[in-house]
Specification:
139 residues, alpha+beta, 41% helix, two-stranded antiparallel ribbon, single chain
């Protein structure tokens, strides 16, 4: 608890955002526990959270899969999701490949940051299918 409070304080004090010392994103945040619909878009919740193989609620993974297919429809990422079961809510090899593709080809990640885990850094770059079209969440 003290570590989380210290991290929150650093986020306020440092202009670069949340900084955690000695913790990877998957350790600094909990898994996505569900999804919520805002202006027609299903979004993982609570944010920040992470998803990966064995981590993340089925509804959160399904929301991610739908966003990939709808907002990145002409990309390899969409094909990975479609060819591996579509919107099945399982964070399997197809979803991992799709997230890796987005991380390296759309989000500007390099090296070990291209890990196939959908966390806060990926979420900040992700486009979601709102009623008015695909867009990033403004935060």
């Amino acid at each position: 608890m003290r570590r989380m409070m210290a991290a929150a304080l650093l986020a306020v004090l440092l202009p670069g955002g949340l900084v955690t010392v000695g913790a990877q994103p998957a350790q600094a945040y909990g898994p996505c526990t569900g999804s919520e619909t805002i202006e027609g878009a299903a979004l993982p919740k609570p944010m920040p959270c992470y998803m990966g193989p064995g981590a993340g609620a089925k509804s959160a993974v399904e929301a991610l899969q739908k966003a990939i297919v709808l907002c990145y429809s002409s990309t390899a990422a969409a094909r990975y999701v479609i060819n591996s079961g579509g919107f099945d809510g399982a964070y399997g090899p197809g979803t991992v490949s799709a997230v890796k593709w987005l991380q390296s080809n759309r989000f500007g990640f390099t090296g070990s940051d291209v890990d196939g885990v959908f966390g806060p850094a990926s979420d900040r770059k992700m486009r979601y299918p709102f009623d008015y079209g695909c867009a990033r969440i403004p935060y």
